[in-house]
Amino acid sequence: MKYQVLDWIFNKPSFPRKFERLELDDNFCIVDTSEQVQRFADRPKEVMSGKDVRLSFPEFIGLEDILKSILQGKQELFELQGIGRCNDDKSNVYMDIYIIGEQDTKESDNRLIILIEDVTDRMVLQQKLAQRANEARMLSSALMSYKNYMDKVILSMADALLVTNSLGKIKKVNHAAQKLFGFNEEELINQPISLIIDDEQGLIKVIQQYTSLKKYSQNLELVCRTKAKEKLLVAFSCSVVKKKIEGLEDIVYIGRDITTRLNREQRTYAQYSITRILSESQSIKQAIPQILQSICQSLGWDLGELWTPNQYISKSVPGHSINAILRCVEIWSSRIISVREFKAITWQTTYTPGISLPGRIWIRRSPLWINDITEDGDLQRSQPAAEAGLHAAFGFPILDDHEILGVMVFFSREIQRKDTDLLQMMGSIGSQIAQFIKRKQAEDALVESEERYRDLFENANDLIQCVNASGHFLYVNRAWRETLGYSEAEISHMNLFDIIHPHFQQRCRQKFYRLLSGEKLEQVQTAFLTKDGQTVFLEGNINCKFVEGHPVVTRGIFRNITQRLAAKEVLHYQQQTECLLLNILPSAIKHRLKEQPDSIAEDFADVTVLFADIIGLTDIAASMSALQLVNLLNSIFSAFDYLTEQYGLKKIKTINDGYMIVGEHTQAIAQIALHMQKAIALFNAENHQNFSIRIGIHSGIVADRVIKAVNNTNSTRENLIEIAKYVESQGIADKIQVTENTYKRLRDEFLFEKRGEIEVKGKGKMTTYLLVGQK
């Protein structure tokens, strides 16, 4: 084989050939030389036995591995062509160097044979040919001038320009392309365009499609890579330069970096998405996964984490806390990456402030960026991150004033340079998230507080209500609903004044307007109507809440005083009844009752009781002052008093507009009743009123049971006074209704009409008559 190589060297077609020789040992030291070999050396004095050949021929520096390969027989030949030297006389010498090996049975005796051929004549000839070629090129100077002009245009272009052949090999690039992608021209020329464009095949298919349609393709947005493996988004316009030979077309690419624009759009969208998530989320736990996903997807990151010292930010941590233990409580990752092992390790990892990326962000209270997490020195997660293909990382604190709530961290498969604008934006988003969390914490606390108060209100015995400024119910408690009998559905459509008793309407409206004016009302008494029409009397306090000076809700707490008022009324009535009885009893009986309060079993003379009630006073009372009303009643009762004195009867004024007369002469009672009707008619005519009078009369014997009634309030319903009052209350306006006892005493002297039977409490049915006149 060695001889074949030598034959190939010496029999190459060329000019007459001249060779010089060097023989080297396995340490590249000169063993033997030919006579004229020094003239080809860079340092001729170093060409001597025992000297390292690299001292005289620096071309061998860096070829040690090749020389060793030839020594070991792994390579037969190595040649260096066109090496030039400048002699002392300024003449140039050119040479080709051939290196072959000579193996011996002993490896230590292997030699390198270096043959140096003088190719000066050939090189001079080549230079002459080059000169002639240059002269020929001068003939096409016009074309070259145009080419130079175009080169200058291309060089000055702000957009990147690349020219490739039909197979995608780069033939030309301009300065803007070199600057954009970080390569120099030599690093790009003859390289496939996939060196800078991720989807080369897809790009070529698109270009071929446009070519077949004879269209100029524009705005092809492609993901590209810089020399530093950073990702760019470039919008290309492409065209095909046709050649005479099909298949040899060139493709021209003109691209503009739109990464900044894309980042701006992505960040705007991310801010919008996060704002929307925060506005629509009902809880912190609902919002956080969506925020992690939104940031990753809108900004092109692959994995997001939330680190907190508490389970899902249950409470805030003071700014001076340095003893927190950070744990990952939420992770979102893209489906295009496999991070199962990395996530498993992350769930089990904890950090203290100042340790690793989450800990450093926690202690610094500011966003932080890492170009490549695998070089961060995180003993727990750097290696798993590298295995998962994760590199760039950044994070930011969820910070509100001096309270830090957590840390969000994001990872990318790309190695990315620090983006200050992105970190600044994320700092703002962290504050926005913190405000949302604080607001939700306050809302949760408020809900919890409201639930406590609602439980308190719902279990309270008092009636509690909230009413807006227009009078519609906003809230009532259980005691309110149970007392008044309305359902929640009915209450939602009710107004406060729908259930206020008519007698209290005007008074309550006035108090309601005073309340809306800012006055606080205490010990207010009112009456509500239940669903079944019953009247419930209430007493309580009411206040009004104002927002920006406007009333928004009134709050009232009432106590049901119906039974208290009823008991008070019964007691008052009993006291009046006792007083009336004492007034109608003979003086001997009164004296005996004072001396001996027990029952007295004696019979006495007949007693007749008249009750009269003015109808119509209640209707006009709301439009009159108290003094006017008193004067009006005095006018009426003065007429009644005069009649009573004329007939020698006992008069007793009772509550409000009622009038009572008692006596032992039933006929006198009947006559005064008829005159009272005439007195009312005369009063109406003189005062332009429309009052009516309703009169009830009952007669009976004051005996054992009556005297017992004075001392036993439980028997008051059985006495003749109560019967007379009940007969009056069940009577007819402008009519005199009498019981059968009275009728029997008067029927021979007076005219009557039988009315029928009425139900008297405690007495059953009683027959009544209407007194219409005297015979």
Low-confidence stretches: 597-604, 704-718
Rg result: 59 Å
Give the helix/strand class: alpha+beta
| CATH homologous superfamily grouping of the largest domain | Nucleotide cyclase, GGDEF domain
By DSSP (H or I, 4+ residues per run), the number of helices equals: 25
General shape: rod-shaped
Binned strand content: 25-35%
Query: How much helical structure, as a percent, in the residues?
Result: 25-40%
Q: What is the CATH class of the largest domain?
A: Alpha Beta
What is the terminal-to-terminal distance?
Answer: 172 Å
The number of distinct structural domains comes to: 5
What order do the strands of the largest sheet run in, or round the barrel if closed?
23-24-22-25-26-28-27
CATH topology of the largest domain: Alpha-Beta Plaits
Biggest sheet record: 7 strands, mixed
CATH architecture name of the largest domain: 2-Layer Sandwich
Average pLDDT works out at 83
Number of strand segments = 28
